[in-house]
Amino acid sequence: MYTLVYFPGLAARVEVTRMLLEAKTIPYKLIGAEESDFPTFPFYQLPIIKYTDAATGQPRVLAQSWAIVRYLARKHDLMPDGGEEAAALADSYSESIRELLDSYWEIAWNPWTTPATDPAKLPKLIAFRDGEKVKKFIGAQERILAQNGDGNGNGFYFGSKLTFVELALYFAMEELNKGFAQLGDEKPPVFSAETAPLLWKVHVAVSQDPNIKAYKASDRYPTKW
C-alpha cells in the first residue's frame, strides 16, 4: 500500500496523485504531518509518497508532486502507448499543465497565510484569469487535442487511453474554475464546452470514468481546493 503525506482534506499538489491511484483502484492512505516532521522529508516539502520497493523489499520515499505522478503513471499503466516518443509528448503536455497551475498558485497562495479571496490578491487573480497565459494555454492544448479523434478531439490525448495527462488536465480545469468562481465578478467559467470545447471533452471523459465518479462521490474526495 502507498502512503501519501500531505495536508488532509486539501487537494492542491497531491490531487493528481490521488486521482491516478483512484483511477486504478490502488489502495493508499493519506496522512498529515507535524511541523517537526519536515526536516525528515526530502527537500523539506510535501507531498511525499512512501512505499515498499517490490524488488528489494526496502522502504522508499519519493518527493516532488510531478515526479510522484510520473512514477505512478509508469508503474500502473497510465502512460500512453507508443514507447519513449509518446512518453516524451505526455511529459511535455503535462509540463504545460503544471506551469499553468504553478502560475495560478503563485498568486492565490502568496502569501499562503491569506486566502485567495483576500482583496489584495483579487486584482492579480482577475488579471491572470483574463490574461494571455490562460488564453495561450487553451489555444495550445486545443490544437494538440484536435490531432486526436479525426480533428475534433475525443476526450483523450493518445488514442482512447486514459493517461495521467487527462487526469492532470481535469484537475487543472477544476482548480482554476473553482478558484475563479470566488472572485465575485460573476464571469462565466474559463473552462467550459463553449470556451474550450476539446479540453471540455477531456473533462467529460474523466468525470465519466466509473472509478473517478466513485471517488468524487466518496468521503475521500477533498473538501478544500
TrEMBL record:
**SUPFAM superfamilies, A to Z:** GST C-terminal domain-like, Thioredoxin-like
Q: Which residues form the GST C-terminal domain?
A: 83-225
Coiled-coil spans in chain = none
- Record's Pfam families? GST_C_3 (PF14497)
The record ties this protein, via PROSITE patterns, to: GST_CTER, GST_NTER
Q: Where is the GST N-terminal domain?
A: 1-80
Annotated GO biological processes are:
glutathione metabolic process
Q: Which InterPro entries match?
A: Glutathione-S-Trfase_C-like, Glutathione-S-Trfase_C_sf, Glutathione_S-Trfase_N, GST_C, GST_superfamily, Thioredoxin-like_sf
GO molecular function, a single term = glutathione transferase activity
Q: Which PANTHER family match?
A: GLUTATHIONE S-TRANSFERASE (PTHR11571)
* Name of protein: Glutathione S-transferase
Q: What is the lineage of its organism?
A: Eukaryota, Fungi, Fungi incertae sedis, Blastocladiomycota, Blastocladiomycetes
